[in-house]
## 1
Amino acid sequence: FGSTFSSVDYQLQPATCLPPHQNSRSLVGYSLTTISGITIGQPGNCFNGTTPVPCINHFITLDQGIYSNKSSAAVYNNLFENITLPAHTPTTNGAAIFFRGGNPSPMQLIAGGSNTGEANRFINCGNGIIARNNVNMRVVRNFFENIQNGVQSLISYGVSLDMSANSTIDVSENIFNQVGSLLSANSGTGIRIRNVNSSSVNIIGNTFNTLQGTHGDRAIALLNGTSGTPANTTFVQGNTIRNTRTGIHLQNIRGA
């Protein structure tokens, strides 16, 4: 069956850590360090006897849902809810999935997939997926809703990858409903790929719905990077973008 990782109890009352950390909020559901490969979540249903029941892991009211450092992971059929950014903590918190890659070889992150029951849901989170430092990333058919951190000076991201080389990146067929908040017109970016060099990048068939009358700053941002070999291996196509200030932002990109 699925598991629940939470800072609130079943009655939605604050549930704190055991002594000596009582009255402290739980930091993270899963913490991974130098794990060569792990699957978090199971597509489809589990069974209670012969009765199928959902196998969903539920991460609720934490600083981070999954933290990964120099590890590879496949993440299926999880619900991340109210993963928020406390005002006193760095911006790596408030991410449902925070994924730090390897050097020199990229780590592998798979979130969601094309098969039934593999999608993850990210609801009311400061950020969806934040990845850094050499990551092969496949984020497919997930659902993001109301991604905002509540801090006016910080930008929220549905999916962000920064500082990666010789990587394969596929962010496709996801649904983003409202990334960013009313607090700032510059507060939300659906997909950001930045400082990624000599890599293959596909951003295909995503849907961005920003509520009428509110601001999503950018649906897609590709910043400071070159594509791999052969050339022209960065593809941004077939995306549906509604009610954002900027649909697609390209800056210092070669080979798109």
## 2
Amino acid sequence: AGQLTAASVLATANGTGGSGSGGTGGVGAGGEVGALLTVRFETTDPAAVAIGTLTGTSTGTGGAGTTAGANQYGRAYLEVVGSDATFADVNFTVLGDTPRLDPVGDPPVPTPVAPSLVSVDGGTLTVTNPNTLQLNTDGDLAIEARNGGAVQTVNLVASSGGNTVIRVDNGVIASSGNATIVADGNLDVQGVGSGRLEAAGTLQMDSGGNFTVTHISAPAGADTVRANFIDFTSVGDFSADAGSRISGLNSIDIASS
């Protein structure tokens, strides 16, 4: 069985609007950067991927004019389906002020671009270097592990200018070091079954909106969130439903303004 290997992969999808020539500048819309890693072609055999550094950048820059054009952000994604992927470092950056509008449907309706996404479905995503799995977007963000999938990092750093959803549906998102997740909007941790979000060190999660933790069909005594040190803050309300369990092995600090 073969393996895909590379020292580094760089993906760039920047969009720059044209000059308005005295009028309104053109819209600059960022594109999509990322990777989809699936089972081997025409089989159910898992693929093996080993890459050093994966870097993705998407920036929307409006054109100059009497009124500058809109800076529309795009999307970054890393999806692993039934396969095993190992990276030394992963770094995604998505920049802009408003979401890119894509035509959807018939007749087409302008629709905001989907959230940036890291998803593992029945496989593993391993990031080995301390330099982290780093995800920075001015839009919404989702990180998920499903169907026995695992996201394994040394350190996880994720920030979004919008809402962030962490979903562990019978999967695990785990950092052997620290994890920092910041959302300017709402922050939701959604556990299903044996799903768990964990960090061996400090798990820091900050929300500029509401912060919710839920867990559906959790086994008895199962943790939804677990870390040595837990530090949660929210500008809005903080809530955890009856099915969820937050375990700080050393300390838990939760603050809501």
## 3
Amino acid sequence: AYNAVYGATNAGLDAHSGADNVHFHSNAVHVEGSDGTNDGIIYQGTNGRITENTIYGTIRQAIYYQSMAYSATDDRDYTVTITGNTINTDVCQRAVVVETDDSPGPGQTTAELSNVVIADNNCTNKVEFTESVIRVYANGASIRSITISGNTIRRSGDTASSHGIEVRALTGYVAHRISITGNTIWGEEGTLADGINLNGADANSIRYGAVTGNVIQTCDTGVNGTNTYWFIVSGNSVFGDVTADFSMGANDTVTANRT
């Protein structure tokens, strides 16, 4: 805690796959370079906490959490906590990424994540984010509990892959028990693709969740769900230059939103 990392040319702070219960807290991280190929904080271990850091500079991903826990080792629950960080970059593809390892070694199976919390982060950019600003991706194992709340996202890009918040599941995996609430998503210049994008490769693979109390300005679609199941979308405010307010599945409920 309380370190200043200035001029890093790879990653400002990095914990590899053997790390467990490591806490990156109250650090200032500046990443140099003109091409945006370096990361601010990387965490590839288990049960990590990344809290109240300031990350700035020219960055690919400000916070990149790749869970490299494997089921063959034990039956533990694996958790992720990313809260209270300030991300104010010159160039950035994504602010916060959480995903599971999709290339485990021989005889290994990537363990499911049991609890992901991404909350109260301030994600701004001097230019547009080029991809989804906050992204949770079940690409090597399923993710069983996801809370994304109280984040501020400003100046997202207008490309097809640029969403404010994205929860995605690759073929064979699910993301479920999902709460996305109280976020402010502002497409200041141009439009976002989606304010909130929920995208499963398989039928009903994004399931059992609530999207409530979010404020979304200027996007193609406010909340867009593909292969979602048993969601409630309510109490959201979607305004500005918006093509479609909501697009969800037949088994979801969309009610009492302000558009």
## 4
Amino acid sequence: KRQLVILAHANTATQRYGAAAAAEDWLRYLSKIHTEGGPGPDNVSFNTVMKAWRSSPENKGADRALELLNLMLKLYRDHEQVAPCQYSFSIVIDAFAKRNRPKEAEDVLKMSLAFSIDPEHAAVGPEQDTVFTHFVADLRPCFNAAINGWAKSGDNNAPERADALLFDMRSIGKETQAFLAEPDVLTYASCMEAYARSGRPDAPEIVESRLYAMLEQHRNQNGRAPLPNRTVFDIAIRTWHKSNKKFRAERMEELLR
């Protein structure tokens, strides 16, 4: 029943100030009685409240979501319960990204990597002295949320930061031999979006070259690599449209064929 109260408050967080806080109050109450031997909140409860803060119109939403993520880590360290999953981290990353705070979003991504990946599928917790054994199989939602945060930030260094995270994804996928963070079409689209919004003179050429590189990679890997979708083509066409280059119409027509 207490879980239903949390859900009821969380479901109104987008429209009502204070709803996310009310849901958090119940979550913290369950966490407290759990440490005293009573029933405690589960992973779903934490994710529900963190999503409420992500969707909340309140500016502090991302910071409150991060506080709850740290509480999950503490409860897991002290009681070996409610371990965060990749979705937990991605919620908080997206909360910062939506508030145009890409650096903090990337910092939470680093937390997810520290918690989820090392050669033995263990990780070091936020206090750097506790080894966890929780293993997250798919980190793409975390990476994609962080890259999207940079792409839409308008930061001058957004393209470089997005590309750096793309490089990290490829490296992790190769090192683990498990495709834990293999880039997908959303990854490539977000990196292209970072260039599209940068206003750089060479942005149209870069974005179009990325599109054709995806096509070539898809062919070379017998369909295993992601194929450009409509969103990718739309980004490339829009980038040419925004430019002032004389041959932009021809390039847009070519992409439409």
